[in-house]
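#struct-pred

JT: dropping the chains for the assembly here, can someone run the whole complex?
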Amino acid sequence: MSTLRVMWHAVLLQLALSRRDPEHTLILLIAPMQTTTMLALTVTAHRPDVVANAVLAPGLIGLWVAALDYAGRIVPEDRWAGRFSPMIATPVPLGPVVAGRVAMVVLVGAAAFAESWLVAALGFGRVLAVADPALFALAVAITCLATVGTATLLSAVLVVSRARDVLQNSLGYPFYILGGILVPVTVLPGWLHPLSRVVFLSWSAELLRGSVRGDARGWPWSVAAILGLGAAAMAAGLWLTRRYVNRARREGTVGFA
Amino acid sequence: MRHVLRIVRESLILGFAEMGAVYTWRTWTFGWLMRLLCQATFYALLGRYVGDEATMRYVLVGNIVVLACLESTIVVISLAGERRTGTLPLLAIAPSGHLPVYLGRGLQWTVTGLTSASVAWLVLPPLLGVPLPWPRAGYAMPVIVLILVSSYGYGCALAGVALRLRGVEWLVLNFAYGIIMTFGGVNVPVGVWPGPLRVAAQALPVVHGLEAVRGILGGASTGHIMSLLGTEALVGAGWYAVAALSMDRLVAVGRRDGTLGYAG
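RK: done, full complex below.
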């Protein structure tokens, strides 16, 4: 079975599972409230130039929550539900299965962009116009791809780590700050800038805002950085997944819940 | 009274033992606490970016105080956990009755909430360059305790929803404190919202207590602050009443039709 076909079936599996779990809609519940909070602050401060930040940030948060929250749950939940052993026994590697399932959840996370736009338009009368729609669509697409890569890595790290809950609860806001998703990285202290540059969100946030304003200079570099960081995370995630699956097989811990 | 204190003690022991399965003091400090500090910082940075130092201080104060509410509403997850593990009937047959035991089930979150909010209160304002006026800022600490208590009642009341509609506890928790973060005067004054929302916000915990905190920092009159504190206490008492009615009904119906032990 080709890798893409494996991923497609993984998408269908995740779709079937998510339909039975109302908590998978958490992102869609959070996004409108976050948009309202951020926009209220922006609008009352009379800063129309920051409206784009407030509308785009909940979308990026949605993607990160999808990566961190759901990706980290895939293997542990499969273990609890008794799906992990038959999954391991199939002739396909686990990595593409995890990536496919994450891709499905990331698509739900990406819907937060649309929700956020609607809240701004209907709730605040601020219709966010996109000056460069083609670049915006490209930015959203590659950001989703990078999220799938990062989520695959996070999924593996969270399975290997003994502190899964701690990491899941802790890795949100520090990355929102480092990723400059609301307040640009340039406003942060200088010593944080190098750290920000290895977080794909920082490139994505700048590119998305640039495409909305129509002044995205040097965008090919941003696209390359987002894809490069996403690919590196995906490669590391697949490697780590293969490694822990092999270890579980060797040590006879596949069936551990 | 001795019975209640004993239940509080046992609840805290149980709660912290449960927390110990997830956190060590190091992972709590450098993981969870750091996350909360970053959350308050995240919104404060937006305040500074769109406004001035005063805006940043306003947003920062709101986001520090709301941490107490955020943590105490985690009681929703603790109570839903009892449903998931099928232990609600065991708690219901306690000699003291189900109510004090159920209401005590997330008390550890009030302790961690007070710790998180206090650390943030001491550390973040000077770190972000918007120091608070001491010793007046110290007088706000008891108000944060009151907010914590009223928010805990709010969390217990909403836990009633999570106990009935199974598998939605994270949605309920995020909705519970998300509504307060959005409309509770945390980032922008309640007055900016349309009339009906403004009226509805008066029934939320945090709203009046946070206004009292801002009043203390701004040097408002004692009478004004005391009236805000009275309203916050009243709102909290209202949520405890809702929680008590909700849990009474849950147990009564569960006993009658045998569903209290369903894990869902």
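JT: nice. The interface with chain B takes residues 21-23, 25-26, 29-30, 33-34, 36-38, 40-42, 44-45, 47, 50, 163, 165-167, 169-174, 176-177, 182-183, 187-188 of chain A (CB under 8 Å). The mean pLDDT of chain A is 85.
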